[in-house]
Design a protein that fits this description.
The protein is α+β, with helices and mostly antiparallel strands. 39% of the residues lie in helices and 18% in strands. The protein has 2 helices and 2 strands. It has a two-stranded antiparallel sheet. Strand 1 and strand 2 form a beta hairpin. The longest helix has 34 residues. The radius of gyration is 31 Å and the shape is elongated. The chain starts with 12 loop residues before the first helix and ends in an 18-residue tail after the last strand.
Length: 134
């Protein structure tokens, strides 16, 4: 979602980044074209043509449209959040009666534990028993 529009990309994150970059390049190119047209039309408008025919009226209307597009500058700002957080209390996570299984393979059965601040845990076992999946 960008500029009040939703863009849908089918693919992974790398594909999204590539397509977003291409879209932004096309938009920048279109903006440059609009700016060039705007400069030419602005010069024409400043000359104040004496004969105001329907052709010049439509040109004035087109100038207003281009002026609006050019004036909508896209401002990109980077947002950085610096959060300094301190935890109140010593309890980080409390688990009671946790059960987990994959099919017939039981991983946790009635697991109870209270994780405290600064505490670390490790999951150990033989290769291929599902540590990473867990």
């Amino acid at each position: 979602m960008e500029d009040e529009k939703i863009y849908v990309y089918k693919g992974d994150y790398d594909y999204f980044l590539e397509q977003k970059s291409l879209r932004q390049e096309v938009q920048a190119s279109e903006m440059q074209k609009d700016k060039n047209i705007f400069r030419k039309e602005l010069e024409w408008m400043r000359k104040q043509p004496k004969a105001r025919t329907t052709k010049s009226k439509s040109r004035q209307d087109a100038f207003a449209d281009i002026e609006e597009r050019v004036s909508q500058r896209k401002e990109e700002t980077d947002v950085s959040l610096q959060v300094k957080m301190t935890r109140l209390g010593g309890k980080v996570l409390e688990m009671k009666k946790i059960y987990k299984s994959y099919g017939d393979k039981v991983i946790l059965k009635g697991f109870d534990h209270t994780f405290k601040k600064g505490e670390r845990i490790g999951i150990v076992g033989k290769n291929g028993i599902g540590k990473s999946t867990f």
